[in-house]
Every structure is written in structure tokens, then in C-alpha cells.
Amino acid sequence: MMLIKQVGVMVNILNCKLKKHIASVFKSEGINLTAEQFLVMDTLWNQGEMTQQSIAYLIQKDKNSVTQFIDNLEKKGLVNRVVDSSDRRVNNIRLSKAGMAMKDNTKNVAIDVLNDIVEGISEEDLRTFVKVLNKACDNIEKLKE
Amino acid sequence: MMLIKQVGVMVNILNCKLKKHIASVFKSEGINLTAEQFLVMDTLWNQGEMTQQSIAYLIQKDKNSVTQFIDNLEKKGLVNRVVDSSDRRVNNIRLSKAGMAMKDNTKNVAIDVLNDIVEGISEEDLRTFVKVLNKACDNIEKLKE
DNA sequence: TCCCTATTTTTGCATTATCCAAACATTAGG
DNA sequence: CCTAATGTTTGGATAATGCAAAAATAGGGA
């Protein structure tokens, strides 16, 4: 019961601290991305060109948010919207040269940040942690139905 | 390595889903509070009257954010700012009658929501989960120094 | 071909959270 | 007293998110 309450509070707190910390490290490394923009870029680096909808699904944000993320990434010259040749409603989001160029460094910085943050946590606990994160998300999804 | 990346992504996703879900349940229960406003109210319900600074520390937000939270709660008539009698710089934040009145119902709704969300997760895993949340927060704090 | 509906994305508008820096009022120490 | 420190507010900015309506296009009948 005390434990349960911790969950709500601490997830909120960790998320804020995490975002703030990543923003600060990115800034000092000259990487101009918010946490959410990084999620999009990381998805594109891993999966290649894809539609806004697929991005929205993968990072679990709504379409309006993704539109804004892509707007901002496009302004920064990191991605381009390319109209799909077979369905002109669809935008394929493609990494620009600049977007590709920052991949390795940014990924390394992100991994380093996360490694620092999980310092001193056993692999087993980390595995449990991620398992619980996923389960909780699933539960919320099911509650919507 | 794959595991580590999950941490960053999933904490972000869970936090968003959690906030959204709580907002939706609160709305359908006629409770007019955002997740952050609830954190403040819950702190006041548990600890009684306290300064903005103590609230900021307990919910780990910065003072500007807390000023805004209190502004909004005051507009809703749930709390009052009471100037401290021994140090006039300090605002003591005091629950109003309306703020007290919603305590039991709101706490019950929040507990129910969280219980639904951790459905099917063992107490042991939950304990590990909270432990990791705390450790990760501590690590971030230490990285600042 | 034309119409209706569904799909993908954008737009406009609103709220909220968060940050920074500067201002303000008040207190406390030399 | 004067100065530095403290607790809070303000103004100005960016970002994430939500909702509803609009725009563009696709696809399936009639």
C-alpha cells in the first residue's frame, strides 16, 4: 500500500529527472535534441524510413505529437517528409545527411548516460524493472477497453 | 545493452500513459486535478500545512513549478497561502475545507488506479521496481555534482 | 464516373509542465 | 545599517499533450 503509492510518485519523478539530465548532457555534447526528438531519431536510425503512424505506434505517442516532433526535426534539418509514391496521404520520414551523421555519437552518448544512471543496479533487477514497466503499460492499455 | 535502451524509452512511455490514465479516471470521477496537482494535494493530506519549499523538495520539482501548482490549486479553492507569522517571506500552504473534503475519495480512487495498473505483478517484483526507481534517481542526483 | 466513407496528416487552439533569469520582499549576520 | 542570503513571484520561452475540425487522398460500390 505504501509501496503502491511510491510507484506513481517515483515514475513521475524519475521521468522528469531523466529528461532533464539527458537534456543537460545532450546540450553539453552539442546535441540539439529533446528526449522525445531523440526517441524519434533513434527509431529512424534503427528501422530506417517509416511513416509517421508507425513512429507514433513505436514510441507510443499520439499523431499530433508526432506531427510536432517531425516539424521540429525538419526545422533542424535532420529529417525530411517524403510523400509515399503509392499512397499520397502518407509521409515517409527519411533521415537527412545531417540526421544520419549524428547517429553514432548520439547513440553512444545516450548509452553512456543510461549506463551511468543504472550504475550499481544488478542485471537481474534491471530485467525485473523493465518487465514491470512493460507489464504496467500493458495493464493500462487493457484498462482502456 | 538492449535492456538499457528499454529503460529510457519505457520510463517515458509509462509516465505518459500513467498521467493520461489518471487524468481520465479523475475526470470520470469528477476529480479536477492534474497528476502534479495530485502530488501536491497528497503531500498536504499526509503532512499537513507546509511551505512551498518543503513541497518542492518532497515531490522533487523546482520552485517555479510549485508556484504554478499552488496558483492553480488556489484558483480551484483547494488550498490557501498563509504568510508565516515568524518569517514573512514564507508561505505556508494550507488545505481549504474543499481541499480537505476531497481527501478520502481522491485517495481511494488513486489507490484503485494504481492497484489496477500493478495487477499481476508480484509484490517482490514491485519492491525491486521501486528500489530501482529510487536508485536511478539517486544516481542522477550524484551525477549532477 | 460519382459518391460516401475511411485513412493519414495537418491546423488551430488550449492547457500544462518546465526552465531561466531577474525582480521582490524579508531576514540575518557582520 | 548595510549587505548577503532566502523564499517566492514574474515574465518570457519552449515543449508535450489533447481535442476537434479540416484537408487531402484512397477505395469500394452503385
At a glance:
Two copies of one chain form a homodimer. Chain A is built from seven helices and three strands.
Word description of this protein:
Two copies of one chain form a homodimer. The first copy, chain A, is 71% helix and 8% strand. Chain A is mostly helical. The first copy, chain A, has a domain at 33-99: Winged helix-like DNA-binding domain superfamily/Winged helix DNA-binding domain (Arc Repressor Mutant, subunit A), CATH 1.10.10.10. A three-stranded antiparallel β-sheet of chain A has the order 1-3-2. The longest helix of chain A is centred in the N-terminal third of the chain and has 27 residues, at 2-28. The mean pLDDT of chain A is 94. Chain A binds a DNA duplex (30 and 30 nucleotides) through helix 1 and helix 4.
What characteristics describe this protein?
7 helices, homodimer, DNA-binding, 145 residues, 71% helix, three-stranded antiparallel beta sheet, globular, mainly alpha, Arc Repressor Mutant, subunit A
By CATH reckoning, the class of the domain at 33-99 in chain A would read Mainly Alpha
Q: Radius of gyration of chain A in whole Å, from Cα?
A: 17 Å
Q: How would you name the CATH homologous superfamily of the domain at 33-99 in chain A? A: Winged helix-like DNA-binding domain superfamily/Winged helix DNA-binding domain
Largest interface chains and counts: A-B, 56 and 56 residues
Series of secondary-structure elements of chain A, N-terminal to C-terminal: HHEHHEEHHH
Strand content of chain A: 5-15%
Low-pLDDT regions of chain A: none
Secondary structure tally: strands of chain A: 3
Number of helices of chain A: 7
CATH topology of the domain at 33-99 in chain A: Arc Repressor Mutant, subunit A
Shape of chain A: globular
Query: What strand order characterises the main sheet of chain A?
Result: 1-3-2
What's the end-to-end separation of chain A, in Å? Answer: 26 Å
In helices, the fraction of residues of chain A equals over 70%
User: What kind of assembly state do the chains in view correspond to?
Assistant: homodimer
How is the biggest beta sheet of chain A arranged? 3 strands, antiparallel
